[in-house]
From TrEMBL:
PROSITE patterns: HTH_LUXR_2, RESPONSE_REGULATORY
Protein's recorded name: LuxR family transcriptional regulator
UniProt record, GO biological process: regulation of DNA-templated transcription
Transmembrane feature ranges: none
GO CC, any one term: cytosol
Keyword Glycosyltransferase: no
InterPro entries: CheY-like_superfamily, Sig_transdc_resp-reg_C-effctor, Sig_transdc_resp-reg_receiver, Tscrpt_reg_LuxR_C, WalR-like, WH-like_DNA-bd_sf
Keywords: DNA-binding, Phosphoprotein, Transcription, Transcription regulation, Two-component regulatory system
Top-level lineage group: Bacteria
Length: 352
């Protein structure tokens, strides 16, 4: 007769019903034993009996956690883990190895391949379930954070500062990075990576100063887990659209939190289309004239405005002459000043 699970573990299991578990083992008896235990506690179980099948199931089913047999014929568990971690679509999924090998080198190999934990065979379903909870809680919080950020128009990515690798991204982040930079995971846009490393260099200096002043319990790793102050943001522009990047916090890494760790970056896109429309309505401008005036406010010269709008500098100059007449001013500086004042009256939160 199985010993009942401790009350605390049972309560956690009840809270997490519905999580998807990918169970990978080439031995049917092992699959059956764990499948029944997981199903009893409300998990949705995806099963695979080979490394190739595991990779396919992971991409199709997007499990919340993977229980992975280390030793399998053909593609072993170590290679499966490496491939899952190399794919941005599955890199965030925690992997627990199931192994009968207890030698240190095998356990180290499991962790180096991307595993977060291991359980030894013969398997005790109670121990497996308890271990799963430790890692599912963190994974669930990260998933909920990503979903919430996307729902409110914020996109997020995780970047490993030491290697520059983009570890994961929300669907909205994928679209924005392709639109603004033409890059795809696991490549981090060079501009974003340079900005991240500059932020971390500055934060490292702050951490060193804290250590020198004798701050209690504040080492470098602790000081960079959360930015000590708001680091400068990065902004990328695409026409009248702007994408801002904000360094949020360190979410861990191969060696734990630190300057070379994995950092959550939150992005938000802002479009100035409403500002342009307001300028047009306020000064009785055509749509193109409002666009020209917007870029004048942004400090662009005629040649730059022409490049942005796909027009010649001479055409921009003609638009600007009509803008001056409608605003009753003689210089672009006066036009820009008047437009900026009006834009901020209508959109108090607007920033250049």
């Amino acid at each position: 007769m199985n010993t009942p699970l401790p009350t605390s573990v049972a309560a956690l299991l009840e809270q997490q019903e519905g999580d998807r578990v990918l169970l990978v083992d080439d031995v049917p008896d092992n699959l059956s034993l764990l499948h029944d235990a997981l199903d009893e506690h409300g998990y949705t179980v995806l099963a695979a009996t080979s490394g190739e099948a595991a990779l396919t199931r992971a991409l199709q089913g997007r499990p919340d956690i993977v229980l992975l047999d280390a030793m399998m014929p053909g593609m072993d568990g170590f290679e499966v883990a490496r491939r899952l971690k190399a794919d941005p679509a599955t890199a965030h999924i925690p992997i627990i190895f199931m192994t009968g090998l207890t030698e240190t080198e095998h356990l180290v190999a499991a962790l180096q391949a991307g595993g977060v934990d291991y359980v030894t065979k013969p398997l005790d379903p109670r121990a497996v379930l308890a271990r799963m909870q430790v890692h599912l809680q963190g994974a669930r919080q990260a998933r909920q954070t990503r979903q919430a950020l996307d729902a409110f128009g914020y996109a997020s990515i995780a970047v490993r500062a030491s290697s520059g690798r983009l570890l994961w991204q929300t669907p909205l982040a994928r679209e924005l990075l392709q639109l603004y930079f033409g890059t795809m995971a696991p490549t981090t846009p060079p501009l974003v990576l340079q900005w991240l490393r500059r932020c971390l260099e500055g934060m490292g200096s702050v951490g060193g100063a804290n250590g020198a002043s004798g701050a209690v319990g504040m080492g470098l790793q602790d000081s960079v887990s959360m930015p000590p102050a708001e680091p400068p943001r990065l902004t990328a522009e695409l026409g009248a659209r702007r994408l801002s990047f904000r360094l949020h916090h360190c979410i861990g890494g191969e060696d734990g939190p630190g300057p070379g760790g994995d950092w959550l970056i939150v992005m938000r896109e802002v479009s100035d289309a409403a500002v342009i429309r307001s300028l047009g309505l306020s000064f009785n401008l055509t749509a193109r004239e409002a666009e020209v005036l917007y870029w004048v406010v942004k400090g662009k010269i005629n040649r730059d405005i022409g490049d942005i709008l796909g027009a010649s500098p001479a055409t921009v100059k003609k638009h600007l002459e009509r803008i001056h007449a409608k605003l009753g001013v003689e210089t672009r500086t006066a036009a820009a000043s008047m437009a900026l004042t009006r834009a901020r009256e209508i959109h108090p939160q607007w920033e250049l």
